[in-house]
Amino acid sequence: MFDSTFAAVMLTGLAACGVTTLGIHLVSRHERWARRHSIHFIAFAGGMLLTVSLLHIVPKALGHSDWGPALMLGGFLSLYALNRLLHVYLCKGEDDAAPLGVIPMLGIGLHSFVDGWIYSVMFSVDAFTGVLAAIGMVLHELPEGAVVYVALDRGRYRGRRARTYAFLAAAATTPVGALIAYPIAHRVSGPVLGGMLAVSAGALLYVGASHLLPQVEQEHRPASVVLFAGGVATAVAIVLLGH
Questions:
Q1: Which residue from 22, 187, 231, 236 lies 20 to 30 Å from 155 (Cα-Cα)?
Q2: What does the pLDDT average to over 160-176?
Q3: pTM (global) more than 0.70
Q4: Rounded to a whole number, what is the distance in angstroms from the first to the last CA of the chain?
Q5: Which domain covers residue 115, as residue numbers?
Q6: How many CB atoms lie within 10 A of CB 69?
Q7: Number of separate domains in the chain
């Protein structure tokens, strides 16, 4: 019989899958609406992730592992390297329609798989940490679904084919990553789990500071600034209430 931690991990992974699928559906059926409002989800999610990471997850990781700072740097730089590699292929693929669709699909698929891994680590530490990380992470899945569908649609993939590939890459990979990572994260010792938490904290900081926040700054929309501040305030309130 599944325990409550496993159930929480899988429910979160499936929720992320559902939100990503919603993003794919919205951009495929209502592209103008999705493009106009996706930045609002990104802004709120960015505020949540950065605040939760700095106020709760980073201190907890430092308390569990002496190697915490180095491992956080490793998590941050690993996602940075993945992102740079993705951009290299994206730029290279501008003259070829097939890579323009496939390379982003593979990159976001790997990113979504890592998201599932992060969920397993966070919930294995404790339920409160898992819930805090999940709120911001799940919200940022909606724009990711839209991004991978648009990338495929601009390549040589259309309609149902693009929706199917986008779902398999960006949505289904998250619960799969959570399922694969859970047996490892749930059974390791405290210091090892603390190290995994530190790597995850670095990854979350990268997602918030280098992936989400720059998109908010590029839009120059007053509403996005308000929503970013709302994400920060919401996270602060949840952390204080939790403590």
A1: 22
A2: 88
A3: no
A4: 31
A5: 4-242
A6: 14
A7: 1
